[in-house]
Amino acid sequence: MDDQSSGSVRIEKLTASNFYIWKQKIQLLLALRDVDQYVFDDIPENATSDDRRKWIRGDAKAKAVIGLTLSDDYLQHVRGCSSAKETWEAILNVFERHTLLNKLAARRDFYTVSMLPSEKVLVFINRVKQLAARLQSMSVEIDDKEIAMAVLNGLPPRFDNLIVALDALGNEDKVFGLECVKSRLLQEEQRESMKTASASSPHLPALVNRMPIRRDMKLNAGSWLVDSGCSAHITFDRSLFVTYEQMQSGSVEMGTKARANVAGRGEVEFMLNVNGSPHPCKLSNVLHVPDFGYSLLSVSQIVSKGLQVSFENEKCLVTAGPTLVATASQVGDLFILDVMNETFSAHVVTLQTLHERMAHVNVQGIASMIHNNVVSGINSDNHSLVCPACVFGKATRSVIPKQRSSSRAQNCLDLVHSDVCGPLEVQSIGGSRYFITFVDDHSNWVVVYTMQNKSEAFAKYKLYEQFAQTHTGRKVKVLRTDRGGEYLSTEFKSYLDSNGTQHQLTTAYTPEQNGVAERLNRTLIDLVRSMLSHKQVSKRFWAEALATAVYVRNRVTSRALPVNTTPHHIWMKSTPNVGHLRVFGSKCWYTLPKLELRNNGRFGGARERRKAG
């Protein structure tokens, strides 16, 4: 801030780049000093001598307020002005002249504005709004949607996925606008800051700096520090929240009197380690402060719940009467809450991460399964999301009817649907360009085989038949397919007849009669495309992604089945466990067998990194 003043209010001096902000502030300042009328009005013609003296004095004050907020470069433009009104008009004539050159320059600045590398979203949006205001002052019509488009046009490439997601909203006239864009950009900026805070492990907040940290201390970003000086529970980790409420404004004061912004608050869940046994813990009214590098457990909040906190023998003990509730171990001068290791905490993930792990299947379906305990081995938040990979991978195509024309089969293998998909544009690592699917009508259980040629369909059917009959103890009664030549060979027909299997064929050019298989192929292709897009995996891995998609689909709910039921429940007669799933395309390490290492001339214990499917 500069030292110009009017009372206790100060504003930045006028420069070549801040005119519209300055104009707004100077008008407020003139109104505050009750001299704004001198900028827009002339002295009344019928004013008395006393009124004239008062007017001249007020006009001088208004002129002084304006003059003291001008930088030296712009004082020369008002040096010859005799009144506040002349001074004001002289400034406007510099910045708001409606000449062709000024309009062209204003348009060029507005339509080519771009976000600076370290610029915050709100600062950038305000800069675009200033440029729009400059055009509007020249009688150029710039509406809310045009400003939003200028903001999006000026974003760096890291926001490309968000733009795709906004495009997928549709109904542009009613939904799209500056407030919508600003809200989504702020959410994306907050998500990026959370990732940065987690990855870089920033310094411990000054709030606990009174407890020095030695270099030999082994702390990680997931540590909860027991803090007697903290008035609220605080964490930087958004993924820990099971309920979450965003906060538009709010901050916490650290030990150095600096303040950090609070992004939201809610309930947090994690697993305590109480003498080697896991105990679930839920903290309420926890503040989410992304700029913090660690999580703080407030002693005052613990005590307010009727619990007791004591420190003895390098341990912090939290008790409820005679019952030990939690413990913390002393590390240097800090007490670190004892929590279970990553084996347990890995099962508490964000819905976004779980959606990615589960092959990008329907988000609402995943959340419903977790809520109703349809699957085991996982916990998640219920934060809503838009997945850019799914926006790309599941783009709308021709509609296949969703309504069945007949009732569902009563038993497994009473009816099996099959279809061949391909040729795909890219050959798989194994040399395949086709795949064939078999879906049981009763359980919705899917089996898929990749093929190099369509002529392999008959061999793959025999593999499926053997697999299905071994697992169910039943025979395939009806096989429903389209009239593709791969299903119509004499060999195929004779085999079905000899096994007493009825072959139902669709009417020519009527794929909806084989709708179950057609919809399945579309679903699988969408999931494959989404998984490959999300981790930018080569299309040559489509067969691996396909196998993952089928594996996951057999373990998620479907509108085609009873509520809270998956194909796994019916086919395998057990509850599926999905806790072992990881995001397709993630990097991992594996250990080669010692024999193979010797054969390859490598030393024992060597490891290699590969893409995980």
UniProtKB/TrEMBL annotation:
Residues 397-575 form the Integrase catalytic domain. One of its GO terms (molecular function) is ATP binding. It holds the Pfam family rve. It comes from the Eukaryota. Transmembrane segments: none annotated. Keywords: ATP-binding, DNA integration, DNA recombination, DNA-directed DNA polymerase, Endonuclease, Hydrolase, Magnesium, Metal-binding, Nuclease, Nucleotide-binding, Nucleotidyltransferase, Protease, RNA-directed DNA polymerase, Transferase, Viral release from host cell, Virion maturation. One of its GO terms (biological process) is DNA integration. InterPro entries: GAG-pre-integrase_dom, Integrase_cat-core, PolX-like_BBD, Retrotran_Ty1/copia-like, RNaseH-like_sf, RNaseH_sf. The aspartyl protease (PR) mediates the proteolytic cleavages of the Gag and Gag-Pol polyproteins after assembly of the VLP. This is Integrase catalytic domain-containing protein.
